[in-house]
Predict the structure.
Amino acid sequence: MKLREWEERYRSGEQVFETPVPLVVKIAERLPPGQALDLACGAGRNAIYLAGRGWRVTAVDGSETAIRILRERARSRGVTVDARLADLLRGGFLIAPDAFDLICDSYYLQRDLFPAIKAGVRPGGVVIAIVHLADPHETQGTPKRACPGELRTFFEGWRILHDYEGAPGESCHKRAVAEIAAQRPVVS
C-alpha cells in the first residue's frame, strides 16, 4: 500500500485504533519501563499505552496524519511520546545500536530492517514483531507478508518469549499473522 493510501485511511479514521496490541500488553506487563521504540506506529496505540506505563517512547511512522493524531492523543492523555515522521522504507530513521529496552514492530514487514532492530535492542531487551502471513499458495511470502516460519528465523539464538502463527488476535485484522517476542542474549 502506498503512503497516500495510508494517509487516507488515517484521515478517515479507519486505522485509528484505541486498544494496544494484546501481545504488546502481555510482554510490557512483564518488563520494567525503560526506553521503547514503536516502528510503523500508526496513530500510536502501542506508543501511548507504553508511555502511560512509564516507558520513554520514540514512535516512528511515515504518515503525517498518523503522527498528528498520535501527538494529539498523547497530549489529551497527558503522556509524552517522541513522535517522529520518517519513511522507514527509504531509511528515514536510523535505529541507534543498543539504544532500546523494547522495540515494537506491529503489522509492518520490512525484512532488511530486522538487523537494525536486533542491534537496536540492548542486551536483555525485547523485540516484539507481528506481521501478516502470505496466503498458502505464496510459498515464498510477498514483499508485505511473511511465509510461515520466516519471522522466527530472524531471531535464531535469541530467547523466544512468544512465538505464534495463525488467526489474528484482533478483530481489526483478518489475515493470518506471525507473532514473536524475543529477548536479546546477555553476553557475560
Q: What stands out?
A: The beta strands are 35-39, 56-61, 81-85, 100-106, 121-132, 159-166, 177-183. The mean pLDDT is 90. The chain has six helices and seven strands.
